[in-house]
Amino acid sequence: PADEVTNFSPGPTSLPKAVEQVIADGFNKPGLTSLALSHRSPEFLDILSHTVETLRSVMNIPDTYEVLFTHGGGHGQFAALPLNLCHDASDVATYVVNGTWSERGRDEGQRYCRVQTIDARDPQTGAYKSFPELTEDNIDPDSKYVYLCSNETVNGIELHRLPKLPESRKHIPLVVDASSDFSTKPIDWEGCGVGVLFACASKNIGHPGVTLTVIRKDLLGKDKASPLCPGVFNYTTNSEAGNLWNTPATFNIEVVGHMMDWIAAQGGIDEIERRSIEKATALYDVIDGSDGFYGTPVDEKALRSRMNVPFNVAGGDEELTNMFLIQSWEKGMIGLRTLTPFGVGDYLRASLYTGVPVEGALKLAEFMRDFARKHG
Ligand code: PMP
Fold first, then answer.
1. SS3 of 372, please?
2. Total Cβ atoms within 10 A of residue 57
3. Single pTM value for the model
4. Which of 54, 223, 283, 321 is the most buried (most CB within 10 A)?
């Protein structure tokens, strides 16, 4: 492709150029980066506490929450949640399923607890395009938690703000899979009753290998987790050991810290959200203004993802789609063809994570407009 490349990959993906430079500079100082430090050395302890502190300040995480770094990715947390929040398999948990990732989280979760599903699948088409209302009727008051995914990476459905549970269900902790939208908008931790929020690192905050879990401290405690919960996934064990119960993903933790420093230097989370809105609006405007040449599956504009914009070209026409991919690649726009294992139609996807600069998204929007003019 061209010299200037914009990476629209759904993740793992490029970090902001300045962050990649900080990491590259670190390689030139052997012995000083977390690639070469014992996880128990004072130098790494400084890196770890810096990452935790910047995360807390950038994301406004209250002191009533613990910040954990574990292994196992989002999938690890799918299992860790019920194993930590349900003492045994007869405990109930409520899962909102409105896309492929919440479906996967629910499927893994139900191996460890009794799951009740609030299913948002369109009964006619089988597609996920909406987010259901959360009511007294669909949430069992005995649920140990209510689970949702705040950005469905594949389906392109995002909650721009977390919902609040109905008054009579406020005692239930909200559990959020924020793997693909964490650190792109503010979170009202206490106001929305967040109990646990987790994010795999490979979209907006770093690279795969470390997983961030933020847990409200009252949910920790020696006897709360299932006795079957492995130590590496046990929130209480990891919290008591200060994230050093076993060897953490040292380098990846350092990278998360660099990302948080960068966000702070850009003006903080409100500025990142402003850019996300600008990037996504540019693409959805082209799609909506294309007289049907481009299509996007989510009709409800308030739910359209700012992180992942799925779109098809001329109704999925193979020849035009391939032409679109080749020409955009030649102009330096890569990562648009995504090969998910979920089979959700012929959609391409432009992922607009924090590493994608506004100019990159505007360039794609312009290319799309030109392409539609020539071939529409
Ligand atoms: N949840 C969401 C919303 C995701 O986008 C992903 C990864 N694409 C996962 C969970 C799974 O994360 P991992 O591959 O790290 O297990």
1. helix
2. 12
3. 0.97
4. 283
Q: Which atom of ligand 1 is nearest to the CA of 200?
A: 15
Evaluate: CB of 177 within 6 angstroms of ligand 1.
Answer: yes
Measured in Å, residue 178 CA sits from the centre of ligand 1 at: 9
Catalytic residue, chosen from 129, 144, 185, 203, is 203
Per-residue tokens: 335: 């990562």
Structure-block tokens of residue 114: 């009794």
Read off φ and ψ for residue 174, nearest 5 degrees. Answer: -85, 135
Percent of the chain at pLDDT > 70 equals: 97
* CATH superfamily membership of 6-14+267-375: Aspartate Aminotransferase, domain 1 (3.90.1150.10)
- Would the pLDDT of 340 be above 80? no
C-alpha 283/C-alpha 59 separation (Å) is 27
ipTM of model: 0.99
Other beta carbons less than 10 A from residue 132's beta carbon: 14
Would you state the torsion angle of the CA atoms of residues 234, 239, 242, 247, taken in this order, to the nearest 10 degrees?
A: 10
Ligand 1 touching residue 294 (CB < 6 A): no
Binding site membership of 70 for ligand 1 (Cβ less than 6 Å): no
- Alpha-carbon distance of 350 to 126, in angstroms, equals 23
Angle between helices 250-266 and 269-288 (to 10 degrees): 80
Q: What is the pLDDT of residue 33?
A: 81
Domain-by-domain residue ranges, the chain?
A: 6-14+267-375, 18-265
The CATH class, in words, for 18-265 is alpha beta
Q: Of 316, 309, 303, nearest to 287 (Cα)?
A: 309
- Distance between CA atoms of residues 159 and 306, nearest Å: 10
Q: Which amino acid is at 96?
A: V
Would you place residue 338 in the very low, low, confident or very high pLDDT band (cuts 50, 70, 90)?
Answer: confident
d(CA 178, CA 153): 10
Instruction: Work out which ligand 1 atom sits closest to the CA atom of 73.
Output: 15
pLDDT tens digit string along 280-314?
A: 999 999 999 999 999 999 999 999 999 999 999 99
Sign of CA dihedral 64, 69, 74, 77: negative
Residue type, 44: F
Q: What are phi and psi of 33, to 5 degrees?
A: -95, 170
